[in-house]
Amino acid sequence: MDILKVLPPNFGYVIFTYLYSWVMLGYLAVKVGAARKKYDVKYPTMYSDKEQTFNCIQRAHQNTLEVYTQWLVFLTIAALVYPLSASVLGAIWVTSRLSYAWGYYTGDPSKRMKGAYGYIGYFGVIFLSISVALQLLGVF
């Protein structure tokens, strides 16, 4: 089976969205590693009893990981039928996670809401996935 004949022609954009998300996760991980050194938080300790800013940096990464697998699944399902739309929605979500993290990095958890626009991308791929499921079931 030739994968290039099975996947939609614009699926390449989705692959670049996956790569963009990989870069974003790496960036968040590096920031946590640097914060561990700066605030002297040793492994395997997840959170500091003394340093709120470290906890904010750690939470930005942890929260992203908590939703990442679901996002990947929905992005992939949506992209099988709507590759360009899924890729745009995916890029919105990835970019929002950076905005979310940069807000959180201030040490003021309320500033993480600068990334709230990411729900457009997150729920967008979920809605597209529902559309794919309904099409497969012959509903429309």
From TrEMBL:
Protein origin, superkingdom: Eukaryota
Cellular localisation: Mitochondrion outer membrane
UniProt EC number: 4.4.1.20
GO molecular function: glutathione peroxidase activity; glutathione transferase activity; leukotriene-C4 synthase activity
Protein name in the entry: Glutathione S-transferase 3, mitochondrial
Family: Belongs to the MAPEG family.
Database matches in InterPro entries: MAPEG (IPR050997), MAPEG-like_dom_sf (IPR023352), Membr-assoc_MAPEG (IPR001129)
Transmembrane segments: 12-30, 71-96, 116-137
Membrane-related topology note: Multi-pass membrane protein
Keyword Transmembrane carried by entry: yes
Pathway(s) it belongs to: Lipid metabolism; arachidonate metabolism; Lipid metabolism; leukotriene C4 biosynthesis
Top enzyme class: lyase
UniProt entry tagged with the keyword Lipoprotein: yes
Pfam families in alphabetical order: MAPEG
Catalytic activity: 15-deoxy-Delta(12,14)-prostaglandin J2 + glutathione = 15-deoxy-Delta(12,14)-prostaglandin J2-S-(R)-glutathione; (5S)-hydroperoxy-(6E,8Z,11Z,14Z)-eicosatetraenoate + 2 glutathione = (5S)-hydroxy-(6E,8Z,11Z,14Z)-eicosatetraenoate + glutathione disulfide + H2O; leukotriene C4 = leukotriene A4 + glutathione
GO biological-process terms attached to the record: leukotriene metabolic process; lipid metabolic process
Organism name: Scophthalmus maximus
Keywords, comma-separated and alphabetical: Lipid metabolism, Lipoprotein, Lyase, Membrane, Mitochondrion, Mitochondrion outer membrane, Oxidoreductase, Palmitate, Transferase, Transmembrane, Transmembrane helix
GO CC annotation: endoplasmic reticulum; mitochondrial outer membrane; nuclear envelope
